[in-house]
Amino acid sequence: MRVGPGKKNGILKRMKSLFDSFWRAVAYCIHPxxxxxxxxxxxxxxxxxxxxxxxxxxxxxASVSAWLQSYELxxxxxxxxxxxxxxxxxxxFGPLLVLVLVTPVIVLLCLLLVxxxxxxxxxxxxxxxxxxxxxxxxxxxxxxxxxxSLGSTLLAVIALVVSMPLWLIPPLVLIxxxxxxxxxxxxxxxxxxxxxxxxxxxxxxILRERRGTLLLMGVASGYLGAAPSLLWASGAIFIAMAPLLxxxxxxxxxxxxxxxxxxxxxxxLDCLQALRDAEPSAILTSADLATLALPGVTVDHxxxxxxxxxxxxxxxxx
Length: 318
Prior knowledge:
By secondary structure, the chain is mainly alpha-helical.
């Protein structure tokens, strides 16, 4: 199937905008305001994590360890480790499994805190530096944004729970969670990026026409967000250094989602600017206004004849 020149140019422009927005987002991540904003979600998440750990860690580890002891397949696996001389790993599985189960909650809360406390300020930063003349139509209020985020989060949590049995299949565990996180990231950050500047119709049109690109950005952000999970793979080393590594992992999650928010802000506002630039502006000249006064002439008829100013209406040099 051959692609026409017009469609090919459109694809190239979208790809250029995508990569341009990516590098701009990377550069903005070292902006002092962005770094300062990242500390608020970090502090909230660290306090919440250690508070929950203080009250529930021992009970959760004991419950998970007891469940593992009653699981025959797990006992067979642990017996195999004993025969290999690695019986000391028995004490690691309980705490490690608790961390694995808690990780999606940490990621989810980080994403929502970034969307709530950082995204509005970062969208404003991008608008002030790149899109000063972009009209603000306020197509989405704070209440609508919160409801949108909560609804998308609920759907993502349901998808995570339903898909968990499939995570036992090695290839799918590398595909399904980042895909779900990517979908949620795209839903939350794309909406918030357009909430202030776009009208409701413009937002819906951009989300519909650019859905594939926005989802690709979300999935890429989802895989970046999976990077801190590599800390869990260190097993006993991570558990021993948890008081140090947990805040580091949370801050990495925060910065990844801050980058994603900036990426969506740059790309979405650029799409909005392009959408408005593509719309022809109708200019009524004095002759067009006189035409409207004629019987049987409608406004649409006059607008169809006034897409651009007429040469004879241009001011004459004196």
